[in-house]
């Protein structure tokens, strides 16, 4: 194999393919990236039996061939090469990379031991890249991180016609985002549980500049797959198998009151007050008709408080939250004003965003947060 490729093109392609390689692969070849050069194109692939990644870039191919090398090492080398074309040549069981005055030699791995990548499922439809990336970032923050509850580490993706609903929960908060897309079949209906970490990494890596093709299907063994493709980049992921908990009852029904506050002001105030909040210690929010008081700490502990403007629709109200969960929900709003709707202090609160202080709530993104019970 012998080819020449632009340094930046190679670095970006290797980084994309190698981003999800396991740090401790069950077999050595799964730490590799497969390079396939043929007819003016270089294809880079990676697969760990859970997630596959594949990208094609233009290259000046002199001799076609296939080689398997350490993905992380190749990515590190490519990022640090000088800004000149890269010449790659195989020599027996080694691969040499030459870029200007820099030359590296890598050992190859046995290509015949590398598993075949899964086939991309049939396309289901497409969604704007910026919309997809934002929606995934908003929902994935609420996914669980406890591997002993694997279903909660997923994002529930429900497709119903031209609407996609993404939902995630870790039992302490719940995030839900609805968006419109362009389905290949207008009457399509499907539910999939996608590992949240994979979905989040994929959305960030695909970028927001192009449409993202979604593909859902079943492999020959019956295990579900979901595929994503944007331009020459594509990735597949195994779907989780199981029943997602019925969380519709968590959403507050007919909230009795709500408050509207400037999102940035609330974020900054909570950050400052939470400096004295020890681990697992909540911040307390006390709403009055025109003000919101935020407090943390009590008794002999360090204490902090801050008051900001707020508009309350209803009776005075006090509630407490985990500050980190509250801040993550506020950061996901992407709206200048935040609306917090309540029923009673012991029931979940609903956080939504709105463009104007007296405008309507934007319900395409909803963040439900369980309160922390106050002593006494």
Structural summary, described in words:
By secondary structure, the protein is α+β, with helices and mostly antiparallel strands. The chain folds into three domains: 2-113, DNA Polymerase III, subunit A, domain 2 (DNA Polymerase III, Chain A, domain 2, Roll); 123-248, DNA Polymerase III, Chain A, domain 2; 251-369, DNA Polymerase III, Chain A, domain 2 (Roll), CATH 3.10.150.10. 18% of the residues lie in helices and 43% in strands. The protein has helices spanning 7-18, 71-80, 129-140, 196-206, 263-273, 323-333, and strands at 2-5, 32-38, 41-47, 51-58, 60-63, 65-70, 86-91, 94-99, 102-107, 123-127, 154-160, 163-169, 173-180, 182-183, 189-195, 212-218, 224-230, 233-238, 257-262, 283-287, 291-296, 304-309, 311-313, 317-321, 337-342, 349-354, 362-369. The strands form four sheets. It has a nine-stranded antiparallel β-sheet. A nine-stranded antiparallel β-sheet has the order 15-11-12-13-27-26-25-19-23. The chain has a five-stranded antiparallel β-sheet with strand order 5-1-7-8-9. Strand 20 and strand 21 form a beta hairpin. The longest helix is centred in the first third of the chain and has 12 residues, at 7-18. The N and C termini lie far apart (73 Å).
